[in-house]
Design a protein that fits this description.
This protein is mainly β. Helices cover about 10% and strands about 55% of the residues. The strands form 2 sheets. A 6-stranded mixed barrel has the order 1-2-7-3-6-5. The chain has a two-stranded antiparallel sheet with strand order 8-9. The chain starts with a strand and ends in a 13-residue tail after the last strand.
Length: about 120
């Protein structure tokens, strides 16, 4: 679990701090519906999602938040989870913020090759 801060890019006074599960099987930042309402995010469209049990269902995608983890921040769209679900940090936020997952503890840390700021690859 990691402490995160999330705020609406269109209304920065709407923000929240919570804990989120680092989930390398997830793609996006995913927040429960009650958090999305609290942040007053704008719905973009419905997208298909696949769960760990291979079930596919449609979920709503919202724009946009700034996500801050370990002092690093970037802007992301948000996938809606059912109300009361655990917030998830997926692969795209981890990659964009250049954060590394410790496989034993599940804790995040800045990439040791770029400890001061996220490194953007253009390879």
């Amino acid at each position: 679990m990691e402490k995160i801060k999330v705020w609406n890019i269109f209304d920065p006074q709407k923000y929240l701090e919570t804990e989120a599960l680092v989930d390398t099987g997830a793609t996006l930042l995913a927040l429960p519906a009650n958090f999305i309402k609290r942040l007053s995010l704008r719905k973009m469209r419905a997208v298909p999602v696949r769960y760990a049990n291979n079930q596919i269902e449609s979920r709503d995608l919202y724009t946009a938040v700034t996500l801050e983890i370990l002092g690093r921040s970037a802007t992301f769209d948000v996938l809606e989870l059912p109300e009361g679900s655990q917030s998830l940090i997926g692969q795209i936020p981890l990659e964009a913020l250049d954060l590394v997952v410790n496989p034993k503890s599940g804790k995040l840390s800045p990439n040791p090759l770029s400890p001061d700021a996220p490194m953007m690859d253009l390879i």
